[in-house]
Amino acid sequence: MELNLKGLGKKDMEFFEEIPKERKKIIHSSSSSAILTKFNSNELASILHPKVQHVSVIDIIEENDSTKTFVLAPNAEKNTKKLAYFRPGQYISVEVEIDGCIYHRPYTISCSPKNVFDNLYTITIKRKRNGIVSNFFLDEVKVGDHFSISAPMGNFYYEPLRDANNVIALVGGSGITPILSMAEAIKDGILDFKLTILYGARTKKDLLFHKELDELAKKSNLINVEYILSEEQKEGYLSGFITKEMIDKYRENETSFFVCGPINMYEYVNDLLKDYQLPNKYIRHDAFFGRVDISKNEDYELTILTAEKKVTIVCHSKETLLNTMEKNSVLIQSRCQVGNCGFCRSKLKSGMIRTIDGCLRKADEKNKYIHPCISFPESDIVIELPY
Amino acid sequence: MENKFDCIIIGAGNAGLVAALELAKNNKSVLLLEKGKTPGGVSSSFKRGRFEFDTSLHLLELMGTKQQPGELYHLFQKLGIMDTIEFSTLSDSLHVYEIEEDKEYKLPFGIIEFMDKMEEYVPGSYDALKKFFVLAEESKEALIYIEKNRENIDKEYLQKNFPDFLKVSTHSLDKVLDSINLPKKAQEILSTYWVYFGSPAGKLSFVHFAIFVFNFIAHGSELPVINSYEISTNLAEEILNLGGKIKYLSTAKEILFKDRKIAGVMLENGEIYESKHIIANLSPTNVYGSLVPIQMVPKEALKLTNSRVLGARGFSIFLGLNQSAKDLGLTDYSYYILRNLDSNKEYQYRQSIKNDSCVAYVLNNVNPNCSEKGTTILEISSFFTDDVFSKNATEKNYFDLKSIIAANMIDAFERATKISIKPYIEEIEIASPVTYARYTGHPDGVLYGYKATGMDNLLPRLLSLKEENFIKNLRFCGSFDVKLSGSSATYLSGDLTAKLTLEDMMEEGNEEWN
Question: With an 8 Å Cβ cutoff, is A1 touching chain B?
Fold first, then answer.
């Protein structure tokens, strides 16, 4: 039975047949000029998150005998006209070719976002024992060298909707870089919160950016710095390790702790902060490589499948699958190298690995995907790369 | 790798995945190209701290249950992923706050229950609502008939079986609700669902809206227990299991032609893959504007694309809270916080950067184990009706602007519900139209495809499907295509487009035979 629809009737029924014609009329009367393909959101997305940035080294500053700062500027010849803006605490991933092998390594941007408008980033690299890439940077890289780097990435940054207005940064050694960037941004008026930096190192000469930090503390009343030396007694410096007394001096009712440094320090600081019974949200960590205990010392076979080919190489129980692939010139994409970003996500076709828990998405875990950057082999392995 | 395929699918969104899998199931060799690093497009997830957030899925209508399977259930079963995914059922259908009137309405699932409750709020609405649901069901059946028989629709059959559908088929929501004498306030409450379409009652197609509401209220809605990324990965796994190829981090640069016929795809890195059939799970704006060489774009395709208007731009806030939903006092799954229930007014508000209307979803109230005990995942979702966000955003103010808008929406939520959430934010991520532009490549980061109004609505698109297949063997699917936007719609869109491509292949086979 038909319904009684006020004002709608036979005419409307007949119009049904006209629909395609009506649509055609509208299409017909519209312009046949070229389609608009530039949109504000997409333009801004490509400025903030470029696929790749080409940079040149324009200056190298020796910070101490094992650390150098590299000043990077856009390489206009390769069509990078400006650098992407970033949030203090973020990193870029650098791609380098060493002896025919391609490596990617994440380095925190240590300058202020304001420097982007002067066309520069700075990254600070410390020599690591047996670190192929860090040694290459410290020994080989010269002013004028070119690299491609990723867009700024990472989630270790100050977020006003989440973090307290009072922040205490607990910093060890070269972990200072993200905090330096935040302090610079506070000085430049880009960030607005109270920042106390408790900066621990072994000796005075291991403290990076000492002068810059002092300068920042002088210029901004939002910034405080205390230095703690564990292997040296010096006037004007605290000695030993970070203690609760040092923290209490700067702690307020609501305080966020930003922790960055080597893994031993994370473990030490976590123990220290336990007494405060803080909710998780008040303790934020820079991305770091979690502890993986490996007792085995053995070689295995690693077979890599891509859409095009199959390669078998030797891998070792104490080396990540990603590092093994890099060294054997198997091209694999990666960014963060600590199991967070998912760029190296690959399928484990067979074999056993040891990895850091909690890094995978639930569905990836169910479908046997792994992050090779944090995976150590425990048997012969077959993995499939996603391209 | 063999570089020749029966079909190349560009884009591993919901529709691209379904289309690729469907073809693989039909023994076609397929190559699925995806510019991102994972499958699913907006049906994805990301981790922050101890939380994993679903990037987009709030409800899956048309899913149904084993006892009462819906269209989507059948599709997932056919595709072989139904047994691998567990679903849960939503409990409440609508809980809306109207800020300017200081009013609150809460309606249940089930047509009778829904009508009873509405009658309580707006006396005199029962009979008209009954008409609404009759019309909605008739529209649903009519659409199924039209989709099935779109090549030769029997007018007499339509007139005999779906006379009322024909009367309302080209009208807007408010016009039809007027014609059934639904009281104004009931119209407004019912129209709250307009937020899933992005067009207000004066512009929204009655048919499109009514079918959605009918499916949603009559049959309820489901959510995967893990998240939409599980659906995406399981579809991708099935494609691989059937011998299909998927290449991630692979951006299509150009659609190649040979003798004016589709011949393949070239990637940004210069790699070339050959195929006589292409399915594009991306917008015609991108395809005709950037991928197809300009001399190969038919004039009518240019005109059609230029005649269309981009739909709503999404804005989402993902919150990991360090208290349980119960302790916070969050009892429902969804909270609609609208300034005004008059959708035409509300639409205007959403043209402003100050827009703070939103819908908040408490995932734990559907999937209690979606986050650790003592925590809650709360997603606040909204949209702007035009490009106001990108007009206001600059490189320098971008992160601050996101935080300001997010703070406005969180405030609006707290004020309306009188529930405090800010002190409990352990993790937060904010997605803007720029974020969606970055991950999807959609023009201006739109989430809802082209604006579905007037002659660019569901029915006109469906009835013109054949005529608008401008380049032979190049098919579209996804939120910009005939079935419009929404998770369920895009999965079903992939299914429809796979069918069309199989027909194209058959036709080609016949031509060669002749």
Answer: no
Domains, chain B, with CATH or none: 7-44+226-309+451-509 (3.50.50.60), 109-217 (no CATH), 312-443 (no CATH)
| Residue among A115, A114, A23 nearest A73 (CA) | A115
Among B167, B246, B396, the residue with its CB nearest the CB of A13 is B167
Which 3 state secondary structure label does DSSP give B162?
Answer: coil
Q: Please give the residue of chain B at the shortest CA–CA distance from A366.
A: B230
Residue contact A342–B37, C-beta within 8 A: yes
Length of chain B: 514
Is this model's pTM higher than 0.95 or not? yes
Widest distance between CA atoms in chain B: 72
CB B227 within 8 A of CB A362: yes
Report the chain B residue with the minimal C-alpha distance to residue A343.
Answer: B37
Contact B501, B277 (CB under 8 A): yes
Tell which phi-psi region holds residue A203, choosing left (phi > 0), alpha (psi between -120 and 50) or beta: beta
CB-based contact A32 B441, cutoff 8 Å: no
Pairwise CA distance, residues B493 & B483, whole Å: 6
Give chain A positions within 8 Å (CB) of B452: none
Cβ neighbour number for residue B279 with a 10 Å cutoff: 29
- Looking at beta carbons, which residues of chain B come within 8 Å of A7? 175, 178-179
Pick from A235, A267, A236: nearest CA to A170: A267
B332, with CB counted inside 10 A (0-12, 13-18, 19+), is middle
The two tokens of residue A43 are 């333009």
pLDDT along chain A (387 residues), means of 10: 87 91 95 94 97 97 96 96 97 96 97 97 95 97 98 96 98 95 98 98 94 97 97 92 95 96 90 94 88 91 91 96 96 93 96 94 96 97 93
Q: CB B157: neighbour CB atoms within 10 A? A: 11
Q: Any chain B CB within 8 A of the CB of A162? A: yes
Dig out the tokens for B380 from the structure: 């606040």
Taking contacts as CB-CB distances below 8 angstroms, the residues of chain B near A33 are 302, 306
On chain A, the residues whose CB falls within 8 A of the CB of B436 are 41
- Alpha-carbon gap, residue B165 to B162, rounded angstroms: 5
**ipTM for the assembly:** 0.96
